[in-house]
Amino acid sequence: MSDVLVLCYHAVSERWPSELAVSPELLDRQLTELGGRGYRVTTFTRAVTDPPWARTLAVTFDDAYRSTLELAAPVLARHRAPGTVYAPTDWVGRPDPMSWPGIEEWTDGPHRDELLCLDWDGLAELKRQGWEVGSHTRSHPRLPQVDDATLADELRGSRELIGERLGACESIAYPYGDSDERVVRATAAAGYTAAGTLTGLPHVAQPLSWPRVGVYPDNRPLFFRLKTSATLRSLVVRAQRLRARS
Ligand SMILES: [Zn+2]
Predict the structure, then answer these.
(1) Is the pTM of this model over 0.85?
(2) What mean pLDDT comes out for the span 208-233?
(3) What distance in angstroms lies between residue 40's CA and the mean position of ligand 1's atoms?
(4) pLDDT digit string (tens) for 119-151?
(5) What is the whole-number distance in angstroms between the Cα of residue 94 and the centre of ligand 1?
(6) CA 140 to centroid of ligand 1, rounded, Å
(7) Ligand 1 centre and the CA of 226: distance in Å?
(8) What is the CATH number of the domain that holds 66?
(9) How far is the CA of 54 from the centre of ligand 1 (A)?
(10) Closest Cα to residue 196, out of 232, 123, 143, 234?
(11) Residues 167, 173, 179, 181: what is their CA dihedral angle, to the nearest 10 degrees?
């Protein structure tokens, strides 16, 4: 059976002192390390539905910060690695910085431009470079907290728009990694093939609820190695299964 590892990054920056931004050097080092451990990179949907290698890696970037194209894409290109980017479609191409709980403290200050979202040309350029472009909903709400009509609109509206603009939208990253059974059912009904969560501990993986490993700038090399260890990830999931049964 193949091991599928999915990393979740956000922004890439030399300057932005946010827990959401890793430096290009750190991203490069982490990809080099995983390459050395035998991982090869493909896009998220392919990795979780039809992993081509015994050690398959998907490198995902939430929120579609402009730095995804400017700083992450060149690093991934050096590794011949296609990335996957998740765009909140209401923000694509807007001139004002993205804002929601968790990033709003940065919208008014020297780092505001770090919060600008890519435009459709930028997303199309990533796609041209082999990336997958997926949805991060329309407006970035916590999906378990919205009503059924809003949920359907956030999921369908963003998928349709990306499909119209870029040809296809197969996967979604749940904002804040947050989902529940109702959200997963609605995601299937909206036509998605794959979806990524983001949790502290790995959980049982299913295509519409796939545990991604969040990577943050203060993760020391040993911690990164533990978080990404196939053995540890499967042990944690097995322990959870046992606990659910008892
Ligand atoms: Zn997000």
Answers:
(1) yes
(2) 94
(3) 25
(4) 999 999 999 999 999 999 999 999 999 999 999
(5) 16
(6) 6
(7) 24
(8) 3.20.20.370
(9) 29
(10) 143
(11) 40
Its domain, for residue 170, covers: 3-245
Let me know: does 101 contact 140? Beta carbons within 8 Å. no
Q: Are 48 and 58 in contact (CB under 8 A)?
A: yes
pLDDT digits (tens, 9 = 90+) for 29-81: 999 999 999 999 999 999 999 999 999 999 999 999 999 999 999 999 999 99
Residue showing tokens 């890439």: 12
**Is the pLDDT score of 244 beyond 90?**
no
CA–centroid distance, residue 136 to ligand 1 (Å): 7
Crossing angle of helices 221-228 and 230-245, in 10° steps, is 50
- The C-alpha atoms of residue 65 and residue 39 are separated, in whole angstroms, by 26
H-run or E-run covering 210: strand 210-214
Using the mean position of ligand 1's atoms as its centre, give its distance from the Cα of residue 235 in Å: 28
Q: How far is the CA of 68 from the centre of ligand 1 (A)?
A: 13
Question: For the chain, how many structural domains are there in total?
Answer: 1
Distance 245 CA to ligand 1 centre (A): 33
The confidence score (pLDDT) of residue 146 equals 98
Cα(63) to centroid of ligand 1, in Å?
A: 5
Q: Quick one: average pLDDT of 156-184?
A: 98
Measure 22 CA to ligand 1 centroid, in angstroms.
15
pLDDT for res 9: 98
Task: Report the run of H or E that residue 222 belongs to, with start and end.
Answer: helix 221-228
pLDDT of residue 116: 97
